[in-house]
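Hi Q.,

Before the meeting this afternoon, I wanted you to have the zinc ion prediction in hand. No need to reply - just skim if you have a minute. The sequence and ligand are here:
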Amino acid sequence: MNENGIKYLAAAEIPNLIDKDRLRDWFLAVFHDSEIVCSHCGQPLSDRASKSYLNYQITSCINCGKKVQFFKGTMFQNAKISPVQFVLLAAYLSLNVPIRTIAKSLDMSVSSVGEWQKKINRYTTVEGEN
Ligand SMILES: [Zn+2]
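Predicted structure with the ligand bound:
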């Protein structure tokens, strides 16, 4: 296999090489300060609710009874892309990979990548002002 063959194989396989549990822990740290708490009342979720929460499922808080979901209230709420696509997209943007290359690599439209770029930049700007 030549050098380019290895590069393309690596790029194509990256999504399958990402550990889903570690990625979820990364989202937990980025979006929730690593805390598993109700987004309404701030109380820790029960063990059972935590399990569903960490599996990205809708669950209920036993303290206030409201529904909670891992990505609710984050920039990833109602996202039409997978968590793996999101983290790769953000990483590629940080490396200044051209948008067309990102779109092709992640099987997304150029306009969708552009919209995510705006969302991520907005989030980064807000964080930077704190
Ligand atoms: Zn609650």
